[in-house]
Design goal:
By secondary structure, the protein is mainly β. About 0% of the residues lie in helices and about 60% in strands. It has no helices and nine strands. The strands form two sheets. Strands 4, 5, 6, 8 and 9 form a five-stranded antiparallel beta sheet that branches. It has a four-stranded antiparallel beta sheet with strand order 2-1-3-7, with no helix packed on it. A hairpin with a 2-residue loop joins strand 8 and strand 9. The protein is globular and about 50 Å long. The relative contact order is 0.29.
C-alpha cells in the first residue's frame, strides 16, 4: 500500500544530473511556511514529496490538490501517470517508490492561514500536509 514518506516546501525543486549521469532531485531553500509579500496575491513555490509501497509492475496515478483555509480546492495537478518500475527488482516491495518535485506557479493566496496539500495515489488519499501561510515582510 502506498504511503507518503516525505513532504517539503521549498523555493525550487529540480532534477539535475550528477557526476555519474544519474538524475537527482535537488531541493533549494527549504521552507517551513509560505510568506508572500502581498496577501491577497499570487505566490510561486515548489513542493517535494516521496512515496513508497507502490507496485513496481503497474503504473500509478498521482494527484496533488491544495485547499485554502475554508477547504476550497485552489489547485490540482490532475492525474500524473507514473510508469511501472520493474527495474527496481532488487528493492524490497515495501520500499519501491519515487520522489516528485512539483513547481506551483502563481497560486492565488486570498488570506493567511492554514492551507492543506492532499496527496493521492490511484484516487486514494495517502497524505494531508499542512501549509502555513503568513504575511511576508518587506
Amino acid at each position: 500500500m502506498p504511503r507518503l514518506t516525505t513532504f517539503n516546501l521549498c523555493e525550487l525543486a529540480q532534477n539535475m544530473p550528477d557526476n555519474e549521469g544519474s538524475i537527482k532531485l535537488h531541493i533549494v531553500s527549504p521552507l517551513d511556511f509560505l510568506a508572500p509579500k502581498y496577501i491577497p496575491g499570487v505566490f510561486t513555490f515548489s513542493i517535494s514529496f516521496g512515496i513508497i509501497g507502490v507496485d513496481k509492475n503497474e503504473e500509478c496515478n498521482v494527484e496533488v490538490k491544495i485547499f485554502d483555509p475554508d477547504k476550497n480546492e485552489i489547485f490540482t495537478t490532475g492525474g500524473m501517470l507514473i510508469p511501472a518500475m520493474p527495474q527496481q527488482k532488487f528493492i524490497p516491495d515495501e520500499y519501491v517508490g519515487f520522489h516528485i518535485g512539483l513547481d506551483i506557479k502563481n497560486l492565488e493566496i486570498k488570506a493567511p492561514g492554514s492551507y492543506e496539500a492532499q496527496i493521492r495515489v490511484n484516487d486514494e488519499v495517502i497524505g494531508n500536509e499542512r501549509i502555513a501561510v503568513i504575511q511576508g515582510g518587506e
